[in-house]
Amino acid sequence: MKGQKEMSEYNWCHNPSCHEIETQSRIRGTGDNKVLRTMKIKVGRYNYSNDNTPNIYDYFCNQNCLHQFLNKFCVQIADTYSVKQPSETPIKVKKEKYESYRYDWNSGVNNETVRVPYMATRTKIESVE
């Protein structure tokens, strides 16, 4: 593969504080030379559809590390991918009536629950092609 960069099968957790979280799975070293190490992540470990779609957990070892990263860098991320105006998607809205039921509790004979029919409205959103 000349000129192409090969993708590693593993990433290191992108949370800059990952190595500070005290868990047994982060302990590395021998004897008195122990360290807490950033977690190594197998790329595609949650890719259940086997289509190589990137997943956020290819870059973060768990939800805690993801949220620590977002809390620390949310302003820089928002500045990098800022939204200056809203986006819009054309749609068609259709309303349809259908028969549904509500329940009156303790209103029937011997305080039984009574099922009462009524006409409800469902809103359907359809894309415009």
Summarize the structure.
The chain is an alpha+beta fold. Helix content is 14%, strand content 29%. The chain starts with 9 loop residues before the first strand and ends with a strand.
Strand order within the widest beta sheet: 1-4
The overall pLDDT average reads: 91
* Structural class assignment: alpha+beta
Question: Biggest sheet, open or closed, and with what strands and sense?
Answer: 2 strands, antiparallel
Name the poorly predicted regions: none
Q: Radius of gyration in whole Å, from Cα? A: 27 Å
What would your notes on this structure say?
- Helix content is 14%, strand content 29%.
- The chain has 2 domains: 71 residues, no CATH class; 37 residues, no CATH class.
- It is built from 1 helix and 6 strands.
- The protein has 129 residues and is an alpha+beta fold.
Considering the chains and any ligands shown, give keywords for the structure.
alpha+beta, 14% helix, two-stranded antiparallel sheet, 129 residues, two-stranded antiparallel ribbon, elongated, single chain, 1 helix
Helices and strands in order:
Blueprint: E1 10-12, E2 27-28, E3 35-36, E4 40-42, H1 63-80, E5 91-104, E6 114-127
Antiparallel strand pairs: 1-4, 2-3, 5-6
